[in-house]
Amino acid sequence: MRIIEHIAEMRQWSEAARSEERRVVLVPTMGFLHEGHLHLVRDGKKRGDRLVVSIFVNRAQFAPGEDFAGYPRDFDRDRRLLENEGVDVLFHPPVEEIYPEGSQTYVTVEELSIFLCGAQRPNHFRGVATIVTKLFNIVRPEVAIFGEKDYQQLQIVRRLVRDLNFAVEIVAHPTVRERDGLAMSSRNAYLSGDERQAALCLSQALKRAECLVKKGVLDGARIIAAARSEIEAQPLAKVEYVRLCDPVTLDDLEEIRNSALLALAVRIGKARLIDNTVLKR
Ligand code: AMP
Description:
Helix content is 38%, strand content 20%. The chain is α/β, with parallel strands linked by helices. The strands form two sheets. Strands 1-4-3-2-5-6 form a six-stranded parallel sheet, sandwiched between helices. Strands 7-8-9 form a three-stranded antiparallel sheet. The longest helix is centred in the middle third of the chain and has 16 residues, at 124-139. It is globular, with a radius of gyration of 19 Å. The mean pLDDT is 97. Adenosine monophosphate binds next to helix 2 and strand 5.
């Protein structure tokens, strides 16, 4: 596996791969890899001939006071994991190359960034859209893989690709979970033993909503109340939002017509956890 730190070298490598008609796949990450990331990597191996995984903790998507400085990092472990998966390139650029001094250009996907996490984390999705645009311009992949766990991010990336005419196919990978249902996340590392147990309330809330829909309940308020009460029954958990919305536009829905996204954000101790499911009638 080649480790590339500089943009110019990444561009050269990618250009060479394309001139040999290789299909380049990109999996962007912020590192501290877990099995969820590795599922995306394995999916990436199957979808092309050359696989690039990027690791960049993107300061632009963290607000002041958020966990940028303390975000978990373990580059050596990540490198070993990616080597074992047969990744071709680990792209790990320094911050000064991605955001050179004087940088003042950002990409905003306007409406989709307002809802859900965007309401609580102003500028978060501007940071995401900007780094994804930069990575697409540098690596120029034919395919890029994103997890459904960050559902709003995925929709924003899809819209970005459409609106800015990027020639990249976006592949969505289903959320990878621990055996007991907790969605894998680098931020699960923040949870103490009790908090880890409490964190199960997110996936349980989603399951409860799925059961209600199976029984024919389509009323948004009832579904939200049921999911909320599952989380609120857990004293260590603090609901940030529970929303039912259109899976494409992310507008709030009062009832499920065809399908609806149920999205949660919950604080448990130091961790802010998100999860979601698409409910189908
Ligand atoms: P991150 O390192 O958290 O920025 O995540 C990098 C990519 O991995 C994003 O596309 C995430 O949506 C995806 N990802 C993170 N956790 C999971 C998971 N549990 N299941 C599926 N994809 C995930």
